[in-house]
Amino acid sequence: MRRLVAYPLAALGFVAASLTFASPASAHGYVSSPPSRQALCASGRVSDCGPIQYEPQSVEGPKGQRNCHGGLSQFAVLNDDGRNWPATSVGTSVTFNWVLTARHSTSSWEYWIGDRRVAFFEDGGKQPNATVSHQVSLAGFSGRQKLLAIWNIGDTPMAFYNCVDLQIGGGGGNPAPSPSPSARPTPRPSASPSVRPSARPSATPTAVPPRPTPPSAPAGEWAPGTTYRTGDEVTYQGVRYRCRQAHTSIVTWEPSYYTLALWLPI
Amino acid sequence: MRKLRYAAVALAAALLAGCGSATPEPVVPAAVAQTAPPAAEARYNDVDVAFLQMMVAHHGQTLEILKLARTRGTDERVALLAAAIEATQQTELEVMRGWLTGWGEPLTGSASHAAHASHSADGALPITAADEMASLRKASKAQFQVTFLNVLIGHQHNAIEMARTEAGGGVNPQAKDLANRIDRSRTEQIKQLLAMVSG
Questions:
Q1: Is the pLDDT of residue B116 over 50?
Q2: Are the C-beta atoms of B133 and B68 separated by less than 8 Å?
Q3: Other C-beta atoms lying within 10 Å of the C-beta of residue B86
Q4: If you count DSSP H runs as helices and E runs as strands, how many of each does chain A have, helices first?
Q5: Would you give the DSSP letter of residue A8?
């Protein structure tokens, strides 16, 4: 379902523009950690999710449901327990963190495991902050559990739905307890798998002026999903470039005018 | 719909030489590094202007958020990503300002303050920079990095929405190219940020 979201645009005073500026999706919020299923899709850790990977914040459906996809057929993959969603290892007290992209007046937040509501936070119609966190006790539960987190909007009949797969209470039989993004099985190069493992001695987080660095660089073509260090050299479209600032590459950070701060032609 | 005006950006001529003013062509000369800012054609509409004005404001907010993260401190991998975002968005910001200036349009929307009070059809308020900065300032040392990552993820999701609106309603080829770049770039950044926030 598509709705007009009159984004800050309306206020710019362009009537025509604000009509044209209908938001492509109803976008508002989701649980980022421990990662909800939509977060796993958006981060690329689970692939082949369909459109949800581009709008994890859009799982909005009528209140009162007990499913992972808000009843939206285009996001039905989220409700498919057969997808072997990776579960995050947690203790019995868990902090759930939300990414919000709009501040709905909020009725309440609910957390469910099976038929049991394990936590309830009443907001009484308040606007939430830019981010929201809740600490939830999962005492009494262990092993693999599917938790349903719901954001009930105050002034609409709608709610946002998230399923979070958890391995509660130590020792899990599940793939990749959260702290290791590098363990993810996705073959996609852009999924930033290499951010962590390469402990970079030369990494300099501040903006680095170009400086002569020993030619230790892999003399390859530029590629996304690669951790480049200052001084590394690549070829892109037939031109050689030297890395000016350490980073893990993504599509659009290939050498261009826009990335002169990262890559200098040599 | 709007009379054409010429954006007299210095290197425009060189870059667009050979292209008629009407036909946009991605100018990527073979084996030559692109070291001049992309020049915007003089053909544009209100959506292009609104997009650029909003993105200029949005980029300014991004830089503020990143600066705060630098002073409060984060893990090295988070700091590296933040620094790369900062560096690339700084360049985007300069390009967008150059286009607006070249068109003779203001850098900010006429009612940017009112934007903070605007309601969407379903009553949701947009998240403002003030909200984001308040959340970050309030965060304890222990919670700061997680708050920062969540704020930045939400912020970049909003950039994607603006970019998609431009892609649908803008007419200026360079602004639309930039919107496409922003859409793809922020999608990839969100992947990295989500991996960090859950890791």
A1: no
A2: yes
A3: 20
A4: 2, 16
A5: G
DSSP H or E segment with residue B159: helix B141-169
- Cα A261 to Cα A243: distance, rounded to the nearest angstrom: 9
CATH number for the domain spanning B61: value is: 1.20.1260.10
From the list A205, A237, A241, the residue facing B83 with the nearest CB is A205
- pTM assigned to the model: 0.78
Residues of chain A in contact with residue B28, where contact means CB-CB under 8 angstroms, are 237
Domains defined for chain A, CATH in brackets: 25-183 (2.70.50.50), 198-266 (2.10.10.20)
> A34: closest CA among A159, A165, A174?
A165
Interface predicted TM-score (ipTM) of this complex, two decimals: 0.79
Q: Which two tokens stand for residue A59?
A: 């799982």
Contacts of B59 in chain A (CB under 8 A): none
Min Cα–Cα distance to chain A from B56, Å: 13
**Chain A residue with minimum CA distance to B51:** A9
pLDDT at B127: 65
What residue has token string 């402990």?
A: A199
Q: How far does A97 lie from chain B, in Å, by closest CA? A: 8
Rounded to an integer, what distance in angstroms lies between the CA atom of residue A227 and that of residue A211? 18
